[in-house]
Amino acid sequence: MGEDVAHMNNYMYNGQLTWANWLRSTIGNIAGFRLDASRHYSWGIARDFPGTCIGEFWDSKDNILNWISYTGNYAFDFPLYYALQGNAGSLDGAGLSSSKGVSFVGNHDTDSVSQKIRAYGFIMYIEPTPCVFWPHWFSSMKTPIQRALTARNNYDMGGTSTIFVETNLIIFRNNAPVYGVFNSSGSWDGGWVQLSPNTTYTAIAWGGNDDSKPQNKTSDGGGWVELWSSGAGYAYYKPQ
Fold first, then answer.
1. Residue 9 CA to its chain's centroid (Å)
2. Cβ atoms of residues 79 and 103 within 8 Å
3. What local confidence, expressed as pLDDT, does residue 2 receive?
4. What's the pTM?
5. How far from each other are the two terminal CA atoms of the chain, in whole angstroms?
6. Distance, C-alpha 155 to centroid of its chain
7. Which structural domain range is residue 182 located in?
8. Would you say residue 1 has pLDDT above 80?
9. How far, in Å, CA of 144 to CA of 156, rounded?
10. Beta bridge partners of 103
11. Mean pLDDT, range 30-57, rounded to an integer
């Protein structure tokens, strides 16, 4: 697209749309486009571009949401990307909170998240669309990413709410319910939450500094249970 193209000129404006439609109709198998540096050019052409489009609108949360509202497109969730660089507690309420946000852990421009497995566990757990950077997939991280992706495909990840939060540990529940534990400390850690009484919870996805599967946890008669995750990692628990 490019900010150096005169999109306000009808010839250039219509020419780019004609080119995009030609790619989709003639080349085929093109569902949509990634709109690079989309904050730097006309919102109108971003709105009119064909197919499913994702904008790299690198700006504040409010400005990204305004761009989504105007164009109807998806946009990369930069506020969440920065939150993923912090401790686990900073994930409470983080991100665009839009069904058209696209969460990511790294890309060709920026790859600053240090605890990538924890970050992938989180973006697979929340409802908006996640995006996996291909060098991360074709690496030692593939197995823990794939566990989280499989769980996402198998369970309802909507309706996420926070049920425990400390600086380095946060626990969520969702509609399934699947309970997500995210730990930014360097070693195993857990938090006490009140769930269904006398119920066993088993890990269905996990990853971190230690790739061992977390042990099953059983709640007491009052429903209290301590759910754990590896350091710099995540774990999803499901009631048996």
1. 37
2. no
3. 59
4. 0.94
5. 50
6. 16
7. 161-239
8. no
9. 19
10. 130
11. 95
Tokens of residue 70, six digits: 């105007």
**Do 125 and 170 reside in the same domain of the chain?**
no
Classify 65 as helix, strand or coil: helix
- Please tell me whether residues 139 and 26 are part of one structural domain: yes
Report CA-CA distances (Å) from 26 to 13, 23, 33, 83.
20, 6, 15, 41
Contact by Cβ (8 Å): 96, 103: no
Given CA atoms 113, 116, 122, 127 in this order, what sign does their dihedral have?
positive
Q: Report which of 53, 91, 52, 59 is spatially closest to residue 77, judged by C-alpha positions.
A: 59
Instruction: Show the CA angle centred on residue 174, arms to residues 90 and 144, nearest 5°.
Output: 70
Q: Are 16 and 122 in a shared domain?
A: yes
Decide: 239 and 210 in contact? Cβ < 8 Å.
no
Q: Is residue 81 within 8 Å of 113, Cβ to Cβ?
A: yes
* Averaged pLDDT for residues 4-15: 88
Structure tokens at 174: 């969702």
